[in-house]
Amino acid sequence: FEEALHLDELAVDAAVGYWRAKTQNFQNPDVFLEDYVNAGIESLEYDLGEEALAAVKKEHRADFEKRIHELEEEERPLAKEVEEKQQARREILKVRRKKSCIKFICVAVPTLALLICTVVFALKIPTVADNRFIPWTIGFGVVSFLAFILFLGLGNTFKNVCKIYNKNEKLSSTEAGQRLLEIRAYKALYEKLLIVEETEESSKA
Q1: pTM (2 decimals)?
Q2: 58-107 pLDDT, tens per residue?
Q3: Of all helices (H) and strands (E), which one includes residue 86?
Q4: Closest CA to 183 of 157, 10, 175, 100
Q5: How far apart (Å, rounded) are the C-alpha atoms in residues 173 and 7?
Q6: Within 13 A of 4's CA, how many CA atoms are on the CB side?
Q7: Distance between CA 192 and CA 9 in Å, rounded?
Q8: Chain centre to alpha carbon of residue 37
Q9: Which alpha helices (H) appear in 8-60, and where do they start and end?
Q10: What are the helix and strand counts (H, E) for the chain?
């Protein structure tokens, strides 16, 4: 079949025969779609050819329906497991994010106040003949510097906690979540195959 397809990429019998052999007569239909989960049904139709794809859909509709059913059976318990674990992590991360935010604000406000005081006293230095404002400026400047270092550290911690929280909202953040996304992607593609087939039959009728 491969040699025949090298001679004619759109040879229907060769294309259908190739995929029958490749998928063990469509007992393993995921092999047929694995390269098109992200690319979509249009790419499959373009690569295989409209006639060959129509023949595959017509002859192996039952195999595709069976595979959808199998994917749904696998999806239900996995979705429940993934969502429960995601929710448990979400509650923990919410508390952690709230605490980190409070700490960040508690440091940010006095840091800003100290910086303002430093600037105010620094601006007063040239307004008097003596050096009365210099010690105040230096004192506030040192404390502001130390507070700013703490501000940066807590700010970075808060940012990382937010990143972890946002990452948890994505199913792709865990292996189980990735598998769930994969199942849904395959199922959607199989359903599109069946929808296309139904549309074609309706138009012919």
Answers
A1: 0.75
A2: 889 999 999 999 999 999 999 999 999 999 999 999 999 999 999 999 99
A3: helix 61-124
A4: 175
A5: 44
A6: 11
A7: 24
A8: 15
A9: 12-22, 30-33, 41-48, 50-59
A10: 8, 0
